[in-house]
Amino acid sequence: MKILDVENLNLGFMGENRFNQALWDVSFSLHKGEMLALVGESGCGKTVSAMSILQLLPKTAKITSGTIDFYGENLINTNRKNLQQIRGSKIALIPQDPMTSLNPLYTVGDQLLEVIKIHQHLKGKAARQKAIEAFEAVQIPSAEERLKAYPHEFSGGMKQRAIIAMALACNAEILIADEPTTALDVTIQAQIMNLLHEIKTERNTAILLITHDLAVVREHADKVAVMYAGRIVESAPAKEFFEHPRHPYSLALLNSIPSNRGKSLETISGQPPSIQQKIEGCTFHPRCKYCMDICQIKVPPEFNVGENHFSACFLNDSLNRKSDKD
Ligand code: SF4
Predict the structure, then answer these.
(1) Which numbered atom of ligand 1 lies nearest the CA of 294?
(2) Which CATH class is domain 2-94+179-325?
(3) Is 19 in the pocket of ligand 1 (CB under 6 A)?
(4) pLDDT (tens digit, 9 = 90+) per residue, 300-313?
(5) Cα of 55 to ligand 1 centre, how many Å?
(6) 290 lines ligand 1 (CB under 6 A)
(7) Domain boundaries, the chain
(8) Quick one: CA dihedral 311, 313, 319, 320, positive or negative?
């Protein structure tokens, strides 16, 4: 069942004297129990796309067009009260640094109980029981005892588990996990990803995973959307993406991960453009080894290259355009 549908989202930031567009017609959807990975280099628009859902954007940001449909309601037009209700209770954020969500002055238990009180309207023993269950669900040992601890008494992985527990305590239907394991060491990274995978499968929770780690995506995601310079340039079911990547940027990303043994690792030459930079045609063309004349003057449309698989690249021009079919 589809629960989130982002359609043609355009967004920009007001600079000193001009408006800089950061997202161009970004579209993706999430079904129950599905993990969508938004991948790409830093600054490509992954986090801004995800934060748009919760309207957690800087004051200079402005959504100029598009819709963010959550159970039939456009979150762009919804009122502040409704949005606050949705944040945390229906759509929860798992940030890169859990300390941005935990207050060092209060015990983790008090913070979890506060969330349960606000979003589940539970108090006293019932709230405490819910908190213990949430800690147990994320495999925090000695749950009752650990509720009395302060954030600084938790390791990085435990803090991240506590944040996930807060989302579970509210029965959030969507988790937005923004590079949730970047600050953790490798073993703990795997544990947190396994935990998210378990939540997705057992609770039917939808997860929007923002990451640059394609090895994690290969192991856990159901769908992949590759972003470059504020656009989704390729989107596909994960298995199809890893077996038949079609966009040169996706190929370059895949060739730069160590798990592709047998092939020599490649780096992608050059840098992604900043949002102030205006690039004619395909924004990837200055870095693309397949660049053709047309790429420097025209923005490539989305071409259907498989079932639920599109690539925005003129190399796929012989196939049917997605937009022609819609
Ligand atoms: Fe490269 Fe052209 Fe495809 Fe862009 S449209 S990715 S420049 S081949």
Answers:
(1) 2
(2) alpha beta
(3) no
(4) 999 999 999 999 99
(5) 32
(6) yes
(7) 2-94+179-325
(8) positive
